Amino acid sequence: MKKLVAFAVIAGLACAGQALGHEGEHHHHHDGKMAKTHEIMSHYATSQAKITAALEKRDAATVAKETNYLLSTGKELKSAQPHKGQNDLKKFRELAGQFQSDVKTTAALAASGDFKKAKEAFAAAQGRCTACHAQYRD
Q: What pTM was computed for the model?
């Protein structure tokens, strides 16, 4: 259990660090999609930290609130244009879909009171963030 919690915290910090890693950088965007993606990612880092803490506290209400935010951005996430890997948008969109699925599972498990499995599902969601950033972010 301690290993799972440690993994979730490390994964959360990695995602937060990756999302915030672009903060303050100036990118030249061809359209508003990239700007919107950057805005969403900064909120993702905050939501993920709140979800990780809420899962530890067995706080289903906070998990629901924050997962609802993550799920509300699904359309934008799936239509985002990555920094690199433009020739592999199918895989990019699959990762986004898998992330959304893991977040839905996290929410459902937390709502049912199964926080152990909710933590596992959320660790999988955070792993999707790490994989996506490694492959598609410059």
A: 0.76
